[in-house]
Amino acid sequence: MEAPVGLVAGEGKGPLILVKALKSKGREVVAVAFSDEQAARLEEAGARVACLRLGQFGKLLKTFRGAGVREVCLLGKVEKPRALREALPDLRALLLWKRLASRNDDALLREVCREFEKEGLRVVSPADLLPELLTPEGVLTRKAPSKEEWEDIRFGLSLAREIGRLDIGQCVVVKDRMVVAVEAMEGTDETIRRAGRLRQGAVVVKVMKPNQDPRLDLPAAGADTVRVMQEAGARVLALEAGRSLLFEREEALRLAEEAKISIVGVS
């Protein structure tokens, strides 16, 4: 019998989708959640769940070791403002935090990954466990981007890679080859909403950071992203093919068709 998969579960539907899909393949999941609400959802989805405070890294490691976990996957949103406000770091987490020269997402996640590996836990990508979650290449909706929107996609790709190289964020929103919004600490959904208050009909581009560890924090979108785009009046979602996750693909594409939003996988 295979050892259970350890899941460090942030908020959102991604961790729930992973648990249900792995359960359908006969894999047990031991999940650590950081809110009672997400813990309850994960338990209902079929995971064995421990609910901890953000920063209780020693307890998290003890939970996985005690359950016989050998592989660990990190998935879901952990909002940095909330983490900074609510974290209750233990000694292991404090020592990790003090070692960081930069406290941006990539640097923090790489150090967390090293700590797992010191404990003999192999960190894997959600795409290693479920490759079907990766965004395919091409136009995924019946409605393709217009010529002008393709120009915005190309413009946005170069910008998104540059802000990614600086470890700022993964997403930019552009219109008429002008930058409308850049993702930072607030996350993709809030970036899209902010863009909607400034410019309608925009193009959302989301890519993996050039120096990013592909096991950690892959760009992700799904049905909820499309709902936010509809609310904000955005017209195109461009995701990096093979290097981003598209959750609830059928539902996301159905909603996009209804809202006349184009979704494309670009390389």
TrEMBL record:
<dbReference type="InterPro" id="IPR053174">
    <property type="entry name" value="LpxI"/>
</dbReference>
<dbReference type="InterPro" id="IPR041255">
    <property type="entry name" value="LpxI_N"/>
</dbReference>
<dbReference type="InterPro" id="IPR010415">
    <property type="entry name" value="LpxI_C"/>
</dbReference>
<feature type="domain" description="LpxI C-terminal">
    <location>
        <begin position="136"/>
        <end position="264"/>
    </location>
</feature>
<dbReference type="Pfam" id="PF06230">
    <property type="entry name" value="LpxI_C"/>
</dbReference>
<dbReference type="InterPro" id="IPR043167">
    <property type="entry name" value="LpxI_C_sf"/>
</dbReference>
<dbReference type="Pfam" id="PF17930">
    <property type="entry name" value="LpxI_N"/>
</dbReference>
<protein>
    <submittedName>
        <fullName>LpxI family protein</fullName>
    </submittedName>
</protein>
<feature type="domain" description="LpxI N-terminal">
    <location>
        <begin position="5"/>
        <end position="133"/>
    </location>
</feature>
